[in-house]
Design a protein that fits this description.
mainly alpha; 12 helices; 0% strand
């Protein structure tokens, strides 16, 4: 019963249950982080949070649809290809220790970088960037690569699989600053065919 929950948790349950019923879609892990951050951004306004959540879902719904697993896999493949092409030294280092960054990519995309491990001002900047873009998946892929580059010194200093995974899953908060991250994200080269696919998958 929502009567036994805190006001925030009750609002979160209301948003998610209403959303899943209205769009006839199952709950997917990660939705709670996004809906929770919507509540924070909207200062607890349940209705405003709900419609923000709907707008976000429509932008990146391919990441939440079980039936679109091929599309999600394609996004992760593009992330892997772009990382390898732009950050060659880091990519080689992760391969050396059997780290597949694509396995880290999907959970971060499905939460849209709204987990507690990311500073709130950073998450807000990321959301602003992909919400105004006509290719939001392109923006998210670029931002994920920028996070890896910001941690390049730490990743290259790590000499085992678990240490690198720990960095990817929990980036040091003091390294995540919104403005330099978004500026950095613009510089990466994505293959033309991959750019087209990201735009298509965003539509």
């Amino acid at each position: 019963s929502t009567n036994e929950l805190t006001p925030f948790a009750a609002s979160l349950c209301n948003i998610l249950s209403c959303f899943c019923r209205m769009l006839n879609t199952p709950f997917i892990s990660g939705m709670n982080y996004i809906a929770g951050y919507c509540l924070i951004v909207c200062c607890g306004d349940e209705e405003a949070s709900f419609w923000l959540f709907v707008a976000i879902y429509k932008k990146v719904q391919i990441l939440f649809n079980h039936s679109s697993i091929i599309g999600s896999t394609r996004v992760m493949d593009i992330f892997g290809e772009t990382l390898k092409g732009n950050l060659k030294q880091i990519s080689k280092h992760m391969i050396k220790y059997s780290v597949d960054p694509k396995l880290w990519m999907l959970p971060n995309l499905q939460t849209l970088f709204s987990r507690n491990t990311y500073p709130r001002n950073y998450t807000k900047a990321v959301w602003d960037a992909f919400l105004i873009s006509n290719s939001p998946l392109n923006v998210l892929v670029r931002i994920a690569i920028a996070i890896v580059e910001l941690m390049s010194d730490l990743i290259l200093a790590a000499n085992n699989h678990s240490s690198i995974i720990q960095l990817l899953q929990n980036p040091p908060v003091d390294l995540i600053r919104a403005e330099p991250l978004l500026t950095m994200a613009l510089k990466y080269k994505i293959l033309p065919d991959d750019e087209v696919d990201l735009l298509r998958l965003s539509s």
